[in-house]
Amino acid sequence: MDFANSKVLICLLASLALSAQVQNKHQDWMTWDEGRVALVEYYDSKVLRIETMERQGSSALRLKAPEGALGMEFKDHAAWASAIGDSAHPQITHLFRSLDLKAWEVNATYRGEQGRANAIHHLDGKRYFLVSGPSFFYLKNKFSPYAIAEINDKGHLVLTELVDLDLKQPLVLPVPPNGGDTKPKGQFNPKYSALLALLFGNPLIRYPGGMALVARRPGYIWLFDDQTGALKRSVRLFSGVTEEKLGPPHQLDWAILGCQPRRNGHLLLASRYEAAVLTAMDAYPTKKNLKYLEDEAQQKVNIEQDLASLNRWPQIRWWDLDPATGTITEEQPPENVPDRIWDLRMFHNFRFRFKPDGNLLVN
C-alpha cells in the first residue's frame, strides 16, 4: 500500500474508532521474567521498567528506548525494541536488543521491500514475527498484516511466509493494478472492519510459550507459538459475536477492557457483557465520525448516550484463558477490584496489570 492509501486507511480507522459507543485507553504492556515483572506503561512508552518483589510500584531498573522506537518488549531475559530508520530510510525497521539492560545493539534489520513493518518480534534463533502498520506485507500475490521472516548472513530479514488468521475470507484483499502501476497493493477487507484497530498500537502479549494477538473490540484472540510464529488456535470470547458480525451492517461496542498474562501462563481478561457488545450501539446510537468533532450539541448527546449505555451495562466480567487448550472460564472479580464501571472517566482510564507478588494493580 502506498502512502496515499495509508492516509486513507488512517482516516478510516479514526472514523471507525470514534464511532464505537465507548472506548478505553491502551493497556500497559507487561510480561513475567521469573519473579520479576517487565513493564512498558502506555503513558511512558519509551521506557521499559523492571519491578521486583522488593521494589513493587517502583523501578529496580529503567531502560530508555533507542531513537525512533515504535515499541518495546521483554523476552529471554533481554529487552527488545523496534525502531524505524532515519529520515532518508523511513521504510527500514531495525530490531534492537539489550542483553545487559543498559545498552542497545541492532539484532536484525528489515528493509521494507515487501511492505513496511511497525514491529518485529524475535521468535527462535533465526525466525522473527513481523507486524505491519497501515500497509501490508505481500508474498506470492497474497497480503497480510503479519509475516514470518528469517535472518540472513547480512543481518537482514527476508519474508518466508505470511501469517493467516484463519478467517473465512482474506483479511486483506488485492487491489487491481491501476494504469501503469504494477506494484502490488492491498486493502483491508471491509467485511472485517471491527478488526481494523489491530493495525494500530496493538502489541502482542507475551506469555510462556506463546504470544497473544487481542482484538479488543469484538473479543477475538489469536494465540501463536513463540518459537515458530505458527497460529496455534483462535478464541472468541462471546459466542454471539460471529465472524459475520465483524463488519457492516453490524456495529459492535467494546468487548475486552484489558488482557494481561498471569504468572502461570494463562491470560486474565476483563470485559463488558455480551449484550452490550452486540446491542449498545443500536440501543444508544451516537454520531462520532470526524465531521461531528466540532459539533458541541452532538458531543453533548454523545456523552448522554455513552452514560446511558454504561448505566445499563455497568458490570465488569473477569475471565481466565488457558492458551494450551483455548478454554475460557469466568471468574469472580479479583480481590479489592471493582466489579462495575461507575462513570465515563473510569471507563476511559480503566486498565490493570500484575505486580510481582501476583496481585492486581487497577487504575
Written description of the protein model:
The protein is mostly beta strands. The chain has one domain (3-362): 6 Propeller (Neuraminidase), CATH 2.120.10. The protein is 14% helix and 36% strand. The protein has four helices and 26 strands. It has helices at residues 3-19, 274-283, 296-312, 344-349; strands at residues 29-33, 36-40, 47-51, 61-64, 69-75, 78-84, 93-98, 105-110, 117-122, 127-132, 137-139, 142-144, 146-151, 157-162, 172-174, 186-188, 205-207, 210-215, 220-225, 231-236, 256-261, 267-271, 317-322, 327-331, 352-354, 360-362. The strands form eight sheets. The chain has a four-stranded antiparallel beta sheet, with no helix packed on it. Strand 2 and strand 3 (47-51) form a beta hairpin. The relative contact order is 0.13. Residues 1-19 have low confidence and may be disordered.
In short:
About 15% of the residues lie in helices and about 35% in strands.
Average pLDDT, rounded to a whole number, is 88
Count of individual domains: 1
Helix and strand content put the structural class at mainly beta
What separation lies between the terminal Cα atoms? 38 Å
Work out the helicity level.
Answer: 10-25%
As laid out across the biggest beta sheet, the strand order is: 1-2-3-4
Series of secondary-structure elements, N-terminal to C-terminal: HEEEEEEEEEEEEEEEEEEEEEEHHEEHEE
Uncertain segments are 1-19
- By DSSP, the count of extended strands is 26
Our estimate of the beta-strand percent is: 35-45%
List the helices and strands and how they pair.
Blueprint: H1 3-19, E1 29-33, E2 36-40, E3 47-51, E4 61-64, E5 69-75, E6 78-84, E7 93-98, E8 105-110, E9 117-122, E10 127-132, E11 137-139, E12 142-144, E13 146-151, E14 157-162, E15 172-174, E16 186-188, E17 205-207, E18 210-215, E19 220-225, E20 231-236, E21 256-261, E22 267-271, H2 274-283, H3 296-312, E23 317-322, E24 327-331, H4 344-349, E25 352-354, E26 360-362
Antiparallel strand pairs: 1-2, 2-3, 3-4, 5-6, 6-7, 7-8, 9-10, 10-13, 11-12, 13-14, 15-16, 17-18, 18-19, 19-20, 21-22, 22-23, 23-24, 25-26
